[in-house]
Amino acid sequence: MEKVKEYLNSKFENFKEKITEMNIEEYWTLFKTHLFQAMDLHIPSKNLTSRFNLPWVNQHIKKMIRKKERLYKVAKKYQTKEHWDKFKQYRKAVKTELDISHKKYIFDMLEVSPSTSEASANTQDQYRIGKKYWKYIKSKKRETVGVSTLKVNGETLDNSKGKAEALNAQFQSVFTIEDFQSFPKITENETSKIPSLHISTEGEPGTVTTLLEELNLTPLEIRRKIARITLFHKAIHERVAIPIPTHIIKPRRTSRLHQPNTKRYVQIRPNKDIYKYSFFPRTIRDWNKLPDELLEIESSEEFKTKLTKLLCSG
Q: Measured on CA atoms in the order 298, 304, 305, 308, is the torsion positive or negative?
């Protein structure tokens, strides 16, 4: 303990001065850490196994367990059938000896002498556990099932009838009976009713086609086309995290007279329809058809506005 005190004194030499700089959690954590470190360094410890601490494991059984462990190590080292059979046979003998010692301990604890009425060559059969033992164990594990004693208005109820009446009264007090007479009466709705829907042939007022024409909505195909081209515009200007594949290239200059637009791309000619109608091949076809002044626009909002105006007007 002297070394523990010296260690703690060295760690807590200026500890009082640091109290004002720490809160209670930091103070306790620091104290606990130093205390555990002192215990680990200066207090001797020993690892104990619980298998030898059982009261029915005597010295003879301990020797048998150690021998069993040695046989296991030998069998694991050589990996032969002879060594494994020897280990398993001895392990079975150890288990039998443990069972006999355990039953002896139980009989001694309960002050019950082993049964000798039946003559048996097997030593283990001389210590059979009878019905009285299991009846005793069952009595210790028995639990009371039912409602415990109730106290109502200062009166203690311990009989079943009184408990039932008290519980029924409690349940009736918490449940209420609805008064249907106090419910408000439902009157007819005074708002105007929606006129009946009239379905007529195509071209006449009230048809779906006529209603859509009156709304003057942009066709879905055009809206999808605008969305694809706008997304491609953002991708080439690095405004969205969509990388342009390496096989999508711009046209090269073939002669002095031929100066292609650097904003356009070489048309992809896939062999499969599944790739032909995918995003990049399909969008590049539409992109290359746009006028040059539209391709020069870098602002995404301005590009989308003029693109919408161009496609919707056409």
A: positive
Q: How far is CA 286 from the centre of its chain?
A: 47
Backbone angles phi, psi at 165, to 5 degrees: -65, -40
228: tokens are: 């694809």
82 half-sphere exposure, CB direction, 13 A CA radius: 1
Burial class of residue 258 in the structure, from the number of CB atoms within 10 Å of its CB (0-12 exposed, 13-18 middle, 19+ buried): exposed
- At 264-303, the pLDDT tens digits run 888 888 888 888 889 889 999 999 899 888 888 989 999 9
CA–CA separation, 230 and 223 (whole Å): 11
pTM of the model: 0.35
Per-residue model confidence as pLDDT tens digits over 226-268: 999 999 999 888 888 888 888 888 877 655 555 556 788 888 8
Alpha helices in the chain (DSSP H): 2-11, 24-42, 59-78, 81-110, 131-141, 160-174, 208-215, 220-236, 273-276, 279-288, 292-295, 300-313
Kindly state the DSSP code that residue 1 receives in the 8-state scheme.
-
